[in-house]
Amino acid sequence: MHESTLLLIEVGALLLALGLLSRLADRIGVSPIPLYLLIGLALGEGGVVPMQEGEEFFAIGSEIGVILLLLMLGLEYTAVELVASLKRSRRAGVMDALLNALPGAAMALILGWGPVAAVALAGVTWVSSSGVVAKIIRDLGRLGNRETPTILSILVIEDLAMAFYLPVLSALVIGAGLLAGATALVIAVAVASLILFLALRHGRLVSALFSPHHGESLVLGVLGLTMLVAGLAQQVNVSAAVGAFLVGIALSGQVAHSAERVLTPLRDLFAAVFFVFFGIATDPADIVPVLIPAAVLAAVTMATKTATGWLAAREAGIGVPGRWRTGLTLTPRGEFSIVIATLAVAAGVEPQLAPLATAYVLLTIVGGSLLARLPDTAWFRARTTLPGPPRARPRPRPSAA
Questions:
Q1: Tens-place pLDDT, residues 29-86
Q2: Which own/partner contact pairs does 112-118 have at CB distance under 8 Å and 24+ positions apart?
Q3: 3-state DSSP of 216-256
């Protein structure tokens, strides 16, 4: 069979399977990401039916998927919202980083993987999945709840923190040393600050380059600008994903809303390709030795993330049920965790980091999707709602003589 024919058959069959899996996940109310990872594991080296020709296509598609994921995350926020979130949730952001990054770093050191792998695994356990969390909030009808702005504030801070974390990790994993890492951080801060300044002061001028009413030119223009900035960012040792994220922040108003609408199908396509390729690149046999560390890490960091959300919601003056909803909703990890693990493994830091991250993401997404529903159950509310003060019994009236 001709190579191009086999490529079309493999890619077509896999995309059809992904579409059916996505529909199934939507019907049962869970994220499709674990299913994408599992099918990737089945098709990779050591899997049930290894791919022959489609792997290169999925490798390129996965890079586009990362860029689109970060672009769409940026489009969800404006520069003003980012600044407001930083001011409102500074303490929660610091607490989030400490409680959730340190367990990952500690696990890497316990496993003997070294300090660079510790920095990478700290990022894997730190950041919640914006996509999965947003889906949970939407599916459970909590968009109008009091705790939702607190959840979004934490997600915004984590997304923005990645703009500074990823360049430093990139410098560390290639062995560039402390000076190069500091230089990468300075460049990242300068680039992020410049784009945020332009978005705040001149966001309309950037958005004026595109027409929100002409879908074709909007898709081509925004995607072209994103690829260009991502490539230039990578050229100066700043993550391409960070460049895409900052482009999304720079766009505002109707252009941002229209771009999000027309690019969502592309994002969904290439994001699925990204997760499948991560599974393809991971040998299922490698997961077995790290399954116990992944389970322990998932249990610990789901607890610390719940504590993060609970404390942040309490600081915002939200009641006890809302505090539990905040913490449990934030537990799933996803796209950023996979991006970080991919970056580290590609640089040869620690091969077992990829299977551990795969198992960890699977456990937190499945577990987090189930835990997020607990606060709505009657038995959970009965056991977590603080009892009110005891009522004084009325004194009996004296009987008439």
A1: 777 878 888 888 888 776 777 776 677 777 788 888 878 877 887 787 666 766 666 6
A2: 113/349, 113/350, 113/352, 113/353, 114/349, 114/350, 116/172, 116/173, 116/344, 116/349, 117/344, 117/349, 117/350, 117/353
A3: HHHHHHHHHHHHHHHHHHHHCCCCHHHHHHHHHHHCCHHHH
Rg, Å, the chain Cα set:
23
Residues 380 and 327: their CA atoms lie apart, in Å, by 14
**CB-CB contact of 138 with 163 (8 Å):** no
Residue 296 CB coordination number (10 Å): 14
Q: What does pTM read for this prediction?
A: 0.73
pLDDT in tens, 324-335: 999 999 999 987
Cα–Cα distance, 368 to 333 (Å, whole number): 9
| Cα gap 179→185, rounded to integer Å | 10
**From the centroid of its chain, how far is CA 109?**
24
Alpha helices in 78-147 (DSSP H): 79-88, 90-110, 115-126, 130-139
